[in-house]
Design brief:
There is one protein chain. The chain is mostly helical and 111 residues long. Helices cover 47% and strands 0% of the residues.
Length: 111
């Protein structure tokens, strides 16, 4: 059984905030009670659970879930069809894009 992470945990400690500021990093933690920063991730997790985890409730163990999760992530990132790119996969779209680009000009060698 997959367990949900502790949802009430918030990484808003003063030490964490100070470390971000010292490193010149802008934190992306939203205000308490909203999920604006997490909307895309929550949508992706929902797809993952619907398309993989809930589809086959008879997992034999953690190793199988991890293996199938890695394959799902590979499919999601490379092979999934996107309506925004004429229902092509990202891999095919990138291949087509590269084939249609003019060849790069060669740079002269410096002696």
């Amino acid at each position: 059984m997959l367990r949900r992470p502790v949802e009430s945990a918030q990484y808003t400690s003063l030490a964490f905030t100070e470390a971000l500021i010292a490193s010149g990093i802008a934190g992306s933690i939203g205000s308490v009670g909203d999920a604006l920063d997490n909307g895309l991730m929550e949508s992706t997790i929902g797809l993952y659970k619907t398309e993989l985890i809930d589809r086959d409730a008879s997992w034999s163990g953690r190793a199988e879930v991890e293996r199938e999760t890695a394959e799902w992530v590979r499919w999601f990132n490379a092979d999934r069809l996107h309506s925004s790119i004429d229902y092509l996969s990202p891999t095919w779209y990138e291949t087509r894009y590269r084939e249609q680009r003019p060849p790069a000009a060669s740079t002269p060698e410096v002696a």
